[in-house]
Amino acid sequence: MQEPFDIQIGDINYAVFPEGNDVYVIFKEGKEYTHIQKDTDLQWLKLDPETALPLFEVDEEINNIGREILAFQPEEEDEAESEEEEEE
After folding, report:
1. Residue 2 — pLDDT band, cuts 50, 70, 90?
2. 77: which residues sit within 8 A by CB, 6+ positions away?
3. In terms of Cα–Cα distance, which of 59, 52, 57, 51 is closest to 24?
4. pLDDT mean over 64-88
5. Closest CA to 35 of 21, 50, 47
6. In whole numbers, what is the pLDDT of the chain averaged over residues?
7. What is the pLDDT of residues 4-46, one digit of tens each?
8. Cα distance between residue 41 and residue 14, in whole Å
9. What DSSP character marks residue 82?
10. How confident is the model at residue 41, as a pLDDT?
11. Where are the alpha helices (DSSP H) in 1-88?
12. Interatomic CA distance for residues 69 and 5, integer angstroms
C-alpha cells in the first residue's frame, strides 16, 4: 500500500493517507478534513462522514486534491536511501 504523503494547493497544506480501493483520508492544515474516493481521473467524490457513501455533487476543492494525488510521485531517493541503510 502507498505511504501517506503531503500535497500543497495554493497556500493550503494537505496530508493524504491512502486507505486502498481509491479511497483517501485527507487532513487539511493538520486536522482531519474528509474522505475522498476516485470516480474518474477528473472527478473525485467526497464521502459522507456518517455513512461513508459518496456524495455526488461537484466539489472543485475535492477535484483539485484528487488531481494532485494522481500527479504525486514518491521521491525515489528516499526509497534508495532506505534500501542502502537496510543493507548496512
Report:
1. confident
2. none
3. 52
4. 71
5. 47
6. 88
7. 999 999 999 999 999 999 999 999 999 999 999 999 989 999 9
8. 19
9. H
10. 86
11. 60-71, 76-87
12. 9
Q: Are 45 and 32 in contact (CB under 8 A)?
A: no
Q: What global pTM score does this model have?
A: 0.81
Percent of the chain residues past pLDDT 70, beyond the cut = 84
Q: Which three cell numbers stand for residue 24?
A: 483517501
Which H helix or E strand runs over 19? strand 12-20
Residue 35 DSSP SS3? strand
Give me the residue label for grid cell 456518517.
50
What DSSP state is assigned to residue 88? -
Q: Which three cell numbers stand for residue 88?
A: 548496512
Give the C-alpha separation, 27 to 13, whole Å: 8
Grid coordinates representing 2 are 502507498
Find cell 487539511 and name the residue. Answer: 28
CA dist., res. 74 & res. 57, Å (int): 30
